[in-house]
Amino acid sequence: MRLVFWILELKRAYRRFPQMFVGAIALLFLAGAVALLAGRALYGDAAMGRVSVGVALPEDDALAKQMVSMISSLESVKSLCDFQYLEQEECIRGVREGRLSAAMDMPQGLIQGIMDGSNPAVRILLPADDWLESRIFRELTEAGAKILGSSQAGIYAGNELYRMYGMEGSVPEMERDLNQIFLSYSLPREDYFRHLQVSATGDVEVPVFYGISAYVLFLLLLAIPVSGYLLPLSPAMRRKLTLAGVGSASRAWGRIAGLGSLFFVISLMTVIFARRLPVLSKMWEAGAGSQSVISGLLLLTICLTAASLVAVIYQMAGSLLGGIMLLFLTVTAQHFLAGGFLPAVFLPETLRRLASVMPSAILMEGVQRALTGSWSFVMTGKLLALFFLCFLLTAFLERREG
Amino acid sequence: MLEVTGLCKAYHAHQVLSEVSLAAAPGDCVGIVGSNGCGKTTFLSILAGAVRADRGSIRFHGREAVGHTKVFYEEAAYVPQENPLIGELSVKDNLSLWYRGSRMRMEEDLESGPAAMLGIREMLKKPVSTLSGGMKKRLSIACALSNHASVLILDEPGAALDLECKADIRRYLEQYKKNGGTILLTSHELSELSLCSVMYVLKDGKLRQIEKQLGEEELIREFRQ
Fold first, then answer.
1. Would strands A51-56 and A102-105 be described as parallel, antiparallel, or unpaired?
2. Which of A5, A236, A245 lies closest to B80 in CB terms?
3. Is B110's pLDDT higher than 50?
């Protein structure tokens, strides 16, 4: 009986496939437009939304200018900031008048100070109002200071060690060697970072990040065209099914499996289309293309997890209109909190803490892994935990309904 | 043979059934009447095993059913007021969902069993959502009787059906009785109640036997007593 019920639930789901397909096309355009706009707002060529930084350099300090130029060419900085070389007064005025999101006042002898440990402070000017761009720049400078601090700590540790063993005389030699060794390691690592870009969007390129975000949003909202399928069964039907041995858990699983398999078919169709895009083709060949079984299983898990989340939302709502509204509100709100619209690093600290536990964040991480073919125990655990939580909640609500 | 003894059911402080007992032999048609909300549906749901009783015993041919879901499942065919059907699926899909037997047996039933008598074969491929109320009711009865149970429990079978459908269902129920089946039904319609060989009125949680073939006025008086 249970098996027949599950088969019929699948059949019932597939009867809704044409509706879902048409809905998917409409949503693809919508999600694509949203992703494009978000990407442009954050990373587009126009200055709007980018971080304009004024840099005041000391006169005749070629080394400082070289260092700033090196920093500005780093991908994590380049993708967000536009550096302008200005006089100190002009920098202060620019920040006050809101033309600049931040300014850096470089002290005299900065490089020498870093090398000898005196560390003259770089003055960072931020506007009184807490703009998003200013927050982003503050994050970047804090991260930079941490990196500099840790490399200096390495050198100081070497100095300390030499002094402890009475080898003060060899310190300059040690510093020279340490510099050489450090460079020999850091240069290949620079090459590594050229392949694996580090930016505000994590380990993937900006268009891929927004593609993944749009896909997750698309997947969750794809349930709207098939809302009728997700409505709770009538009390008479539920009672008779219970009597026939099809309990609340079996009923919940039937609904989730039906919707999940629809999601999976639509996802496969999307993958077939998306893998032809130049931005994905290289990643596809290196990842999912060579690990197709792992990626396929991950995609199936993602679809079932998304279906269980949608099922619990509709179960809570209890009606067609309520379900559609609750799904839309919940999905968009948690997608924002998960950093799906704006990467989580740009969100305020309190919201950022929530980001990692948002369903969209878990699903997005899963999609990224599926795309790169890199299975992870922790990520799979998170996906399964989310799935079981939603499944059990759906079954509980189904049972409570009678 | 159906024997119900000392059945009790309460929803919070509201006592719906209090020490209810009845017996029905093969070929009997037992009618349960009462005003709206008196607990008829709860009583039938308990007899079908869909709702659990607080106390009491239900025996089908001597087999205790309370606490044994399998006995209800095998011995009772329950047709609730609301049709337990999936609208998006075809008549055949719905029949196969509830059918308790092999595919071959289902085909036999469609040829000569309850499903055939109820005219299910002609509408097998139709989606349930396109069926009329009467067709849905016939399908519900056919689905319920797929276990060839000897006790048929019907909750207001004729509600919202046209005269022709009511007549079809009535003909089938008469045949079912003749074949030795036991029917328990609730209804507010005298034509349906005229099928009954025994009549009970349910009031304040108590079941009281009344005369059969009573007229409208007399029945209303019984409800008020």
1. parallel
2. A236
3. yes
